[in-house]
Structure formats: structure tokens, C-alpha cells
Structure prediction request, 423 residues.
Amino acid sequence: MARIVVKFGGTSVATVERIRQSARHVKREVEAGNEVCVVVSAMSGKTNELVGWVNEASTFHDAREYDAVVASGEQVTAGLMAIVLSEMGIQSRSFAGWQVPIKTDDAHGAARIVEIDGTELDKRMKDGWVPVITGFQGVSPHNRITTLGRGGSDTSAVAVAAAVKADRCDIYTDVDGVYTTDPRIVPKAQRLSKISFEEMLEMASLGAKVLMIRSVEMAMAHKVRLLVRSSFDDPDAPQLAPDGTPGVPGTLVCDEDEIMEKQIVSGVTLAKAEAKITLRDVKDNPGVAAAIFGALADEGIIVDMIVQNIADDGATTDITFTVPDSEYDKAIKTLQAAGTDKRIEYARISGSKGGAKISVVGVGMRSHAGVASSMFKALADKGINIQLITTSEIKTSVLIDEQYAELAVRALHTYYGLDRKDA
Ligand code: ADP
Ligand code: ASP
Ligand code: MG
Prediction:
């Protein structure tokens, strides 16, 4: 007998019929003698609709009310899932985040989970109940509903799994695992039977939205093994062993030590809508980078790639960095204002929207030279110009023009031998 937290994403609960299909996976686990706790997302498209309504009501809305509105989608699916499970003969009860309670900080719209009291969930499961928890949300120290940021139900599931000491956390979605790249972009992408926490963390932060970044961080910290699988698979088909035996659908996200065969490159990721900004002839004094990025951080603007050149004349330098397209205008205004009142001294500012960040990820890069150079060659062969480069221990990223993004991903996928052999 195992204790499993099972999470269903938006497409897995998109309609009552889909909820019924997903519930059959829960039923199978319960009938196998497992204790199960469910975490649900809102019906697919629902959160976007709710966000749209909030913005229509007012562009300058209070973040506490944004959370009150957008958290409602999950309340609907949690209740429906509990009803459907009960109808199947499984004792089930829904819990909103605040009822568990899932305690968060008060950063509305992007709250972080601080603590989960698993007592009630633990008791229910021991008594043979299946609790169904609303993903994506919790309660602030001021007793208000908070949400965790888009895609946050993955994080809710992992946090609940850690709190109830689950043996596994199964993430049911619309693909049957984590692929070498987004299978919607590259049909030749291959499913990985296992991927390390570290690689998954890089892939998630570089654009693979199959798992939210925070959820992987949390799984890594609490050693929660994740199994990414599809709710569209037949619930009555023979099941994957908990150790992730290959040949059955799903990807196990686990410790690197559990993976025997380490790839040099495990995946290729793509993140679009990246804007680049360059400050020219910046006074090269100590504290200048702190002043630039401090001004942006004060406005809540998240900066990604950063490149600073060596000062040719010993007095000035150029700094280039990227921000999301949606933050571009705000970032330019912030830096112009900081230039006007001399908080930052520079000669010119320029930039453009519409970049794409393409990355290759793999733990094997630690011990193999030449991954970066071969990536640049593969892109050069396709005539794709590289605008910026950043590297870390297990990834290399480049910024290119958005219009070549898919071409670049496909070229790199083929170059590193990741294409499915039968495709
Ligand atoms: P859910 O609603 O279940 O949380 P998401 O839409 O958030 O599902 O995530 C699943 C999607 O992630 C897939 O449909 C797929 O297009 C996309 N995706 C991006 N990169 C990858 C990848 N490397 N492997 C699998 N899926 C990926
Ligand atoms: N419903 C939320 C969203 O669409 C949370 C989630 O699906 O994980 O972002
Ligand atoms: Mg998701």
C-alpha cells in the first residue's frame, strides 16, 4: 500500500465527462489499496476567463480581489470531483486551500506556501476518505485567499505530498510524460522515462511549462518523486511500477542517482516573448549593476539573461539584458527615469521586443566539453543569428529572433540525436 497525491490539470477536468474519466484513475488507485489525496486545477480556459473579467472590471484592481475571483475556478472542479467520486462509491470530500489550511505569505497573485497542516488530510485518508483539494491557492496571514501564480496547482500538489508524507505525487496532464522538447512543436520529440530534478528544474525555468518551476524546486527539496503521466490513457490499462519501469507511459522525476544512463543533452526548450534592452556607455563604477537591476527589481520587473562587456576605455561599459515583452515598456521608462535623475549614468538606451530564448539542458554537460560550441554551429548552419548567450553548469541558452524559434528548436533536437527513431 502506498500513499499517493494525484493532481489533475485543466484539460483533465475540462468537462464533467473528463472529470469522470480522471476519477477512474483515482478509483483504480483506491481499489489497489492505496491512500489517495487529489489536487485539482480549474477547467481549462477557466482561469484565463476569470483573469479577463478582473481586468475588464478594472485594470487597477486590488490584488486581493484578483485572488478572490481567480481562485474560484478550482473550487468548482474540487466539488465536482468529490461528487463524481462519491457517485462511484468512494467516500470523498472537497477542501478549499483555506480549509486545509494551506498557509501562504501575502504576496497576492504569486504567493508562496509557508506551511500545510496535514492533520485533517491524514485522518481522512486513514479513515478511507479521498480528500479533493483546490490547487493554485491558500490563505494569507491576514486570512485572505491567495493564489500561487499561473500553473500553481503543480506546486500545491507537491506541497501536499510533502505535508502528508506521500510516497509519490502523480501529475496527470494532457501529455504522457516529459518530452525531450515540447511535443506540440516537435512531433519527433521523445518521452523521457526518467529525468533528474535538476534537469527538470532547468527545463521548467527555461520554458517547458509541463511543470511549474516552484513545484520542481519543492519536489527536489523534499525529495518527492513525481510521476508525470496522461489522464487520457485508459484507466484500466496495466500500470506503471512505482520505480518507473520503462515501456509503460509516464516520466519519473527523481534523484540523479536513480538514473543509470545519463544523456549529454536531455532536452531543448523554448521561451518566446523575450525583450532585450541595452544601456550604452554606462559609467563603469562599483555599484552600477546594483543601481540598474535594483531600479528594475523595485518595480517588480524580472530580469533574465545579463551580459556586461569589458570597459574598452576603462571608464564606460555596455550592459544588455532581457525582460519579458510584457515588461519592456515599464523597464524602459524606469531606466529613463533613473537616467534623468542621475541614479544611473549612461549615454543611450535601446532595445526591442520579440526575442526567443532557446536552451539545451543536460547533466552530461558537466563532464563533456563542446556542447555550447556545437549548439552555435548547428544554429549557424541554419543561418540563425545569435544575439546573446548565457551558460550554467547544465545548460546553454541563446537569444534569437522569435521568427526562427521553432526552426532552431527542431534543428537542435535533430543535431543532438533526440529525434524519435521511428518518426
Ligand atoms: P496542465 O493543464 O495539465 O497543467 P499544461 O498545459 O500546464 O497542463 O502542461 C502540459 C503541456 O506542456 C503539454 O500539453 C505540452 O504542450 C507542454 N510542454 C512544454 N514542454 C514540454 C515537454 N518538454 N514535455 C512535455 N510537455 C511539454
Ligand atoms: N488554474 C490555474 C492556471 O490556469 C492553476 C493551474 O492550472 O495549475 O494557472
Ligand atoms: Mg500546468
